[in-house]
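pinned: reference chain
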Amino acid sequence: MDLSSELGRATFLKLVPKCDIVIENFRADVLDTLRLGYDELRKVRDDIILISMPGHGKDGPERDYVAYGTNVEQLAGLVSLSGYRDGPPQKSGISYGDPVAGTLAAGMAIAALIARKRTGKGQYIELSQREGLTSLIGEQVLGYDISKQLPERMGNRHPFYAPHGCYPAAGEDRWVTIACHNDDEFQVLCTLIDRTDLAVDERFATANARHANQDALDAEIATWTRTRSREEIFELLAESGVPAAPVWSADELYDNEHLRARGFFEPVWHRDAGAWEMERPLYRFTRRPTRIRMNAPAFAEHNDYVLRELIGLNADEVAQLEAQGVTARVPDMASHQ
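pinned: its structure tokens
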């Protein structure tokens, strides 16, 4: 719906009374520019809940900057922590700002609904996507506040556990992770790899010594892991209580025996995308089965439901929206190229 047009704005305001929550992630000034801010929404439903997710928040010197998934991680400080000790900062594989903000907003929505049930009042909630992501590195921020020292990039290593790394397994581009939290686990590991001499080596006999000599220790462990498959290493170490795990790729997860046995993947069908499998809901209730109930909406799939059933427009009114370009049945791809 084109909210910049008067007809689009008026149509949207007809929808608001039918809604419990409005969620938006425009730039800070957009909703007010459209005259659809919280005060305007309250005129048509006084207990409405509005959740705004501007990238930088509604105030501050950078409020009007546009945020993207590709720059929020850097602004939030997350990227400064990722990477190897002697290398540059590295972005994550996905744009974490988006799913983190969505998850936080869902929790806020539930809290606001509970509050409204108790008080009868709606509320306006502002969530800066950038700040939401910074909250996930609170220990590093607090650490600097206390010590005035920046945390060091560590790659796969740990501030005090050793060994703690990703090691090459047999085969091309095959890897396994191994971590020991204490002397007991390390001694078990030494026995399993038939290197009990490492447990009494002065370079590795204590946690502090192992941490100080990680390069040498990793080389010894890698000599053993290279001769065995990820699966063999995982089974041997995990059964003996040493934390270890193979590094699976996406295709290997798709065919994973354990996930298949648990029914992790569920077949779905989409009007435009066809049939495939995707992960089912992660939570499971004892009294009510969980499953994927519907597909992600296709373009305009719910136009008639929203416009005709929810807000009661007739066929001529819907046709007028389409004729004026306020709504559409098919996407206008040319305008986005």
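why pinned: The mean pLDDT is 93. The chain has three domains: 6-148, 164-246, 299-337.
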